[in-house]
Amino acid sequence: MMLTGMHxxxxxxxxxxxxxxRKLVELDAxxxxxGFDQLAHHFTGAVKLPIDEVDFPDLDAIILPxxxxxxxxxxxxxxxxxxxxxxxxxVKRTAQRCTIYSGISNSYLxxxxxKTERKHVQLFARDDxxxxxxxxxxxxxVMMVIQHTDFTIHGSRVAVLGxxxxxxxxxxxxxxxxxxxxxxxxxxxxxxxxxxMGLVPFHLNDLEKEVRDIDVCINTIPHLIVTASVIAKMxxxxxxxxxxxxxxxxxxxxxxxxxxKAILAPGLPGIVAPKTAGQIIANVLAQLLYEDWQxxxxxxx
Length: 301
Ligand code: NAP
Description:
The protein is of the alpha/beta class.
């Protein structure tokens, strides 16, 4: 699998993007790097340049950071002093075939791709990426729990809420460390799977009752679930780690009022394992770019 001749612009990002650059250089793609001026490292086959010097009509793909753009149309880079503008005018200079990649999207980026009619791929919406990412997420959760408790994970009573891609990995990881793990879900097939995993299942309807005897509550449900009345039933020493995307699923105001420690912990993969998190993105991206490139080569024939 090679990407020889494919022209890709990588605009902004953090340490994770270095893994993407490394991988695409290895696959022999032609890279234009925008917003990497403060990066001392030089990659052969990759050129650092300002956004207005990119050969846009020649581009096959644009890779944005995990967060895509800001809501006012800029791309952040930890390797540049200033954010990079990413406007309709810029995207319109690319050929129709140019695909835009990011981890997640927002209203600005959605609107931009709609107006310019370019294909946009959100990598974090993919099941494979979410499952791979759940590994550093679970490790980051272990780190948070260690940092914020004075007891071992081993032997502690942990409630995990949600058996999605993150919930399953987190439940398994804490169980492997010797915690007594129960998992709350609402679908009967999830309750069956929790039982199969050797963990204790409970229905989310019984959440208030089930939190009476726990030490740690880990939420993965992006919906207000750890409500004031749930928090009121928890022992006062309970630690709540909320992994769900902002604003989380916890009534943080009430938790603070009651003196229950509750922490919203977003973006753990990029914090605890930027290299692995970058490799996860790089591997999937390489595969997607290759499929795209192959299709184009076939069409030429
Ligand atoms: P997922 O696979 O979609 O799982 C979400 C789970 O929440 C599902 O089991 C779903 O159950 C349940 N759920 C959703 N809405 C519910 C509701 N109203 N009531 C009860 N249950 C509900 O998602 P995921 O990949 O595990 O990700 C979970 C969250 O973690 C997301 O917000 C994601 O952005 C975030 N995340 C955070 C980090 C971090 O570093 N903190 C890392 C990765 C992901 P049903 O199947 O019954 O709907």
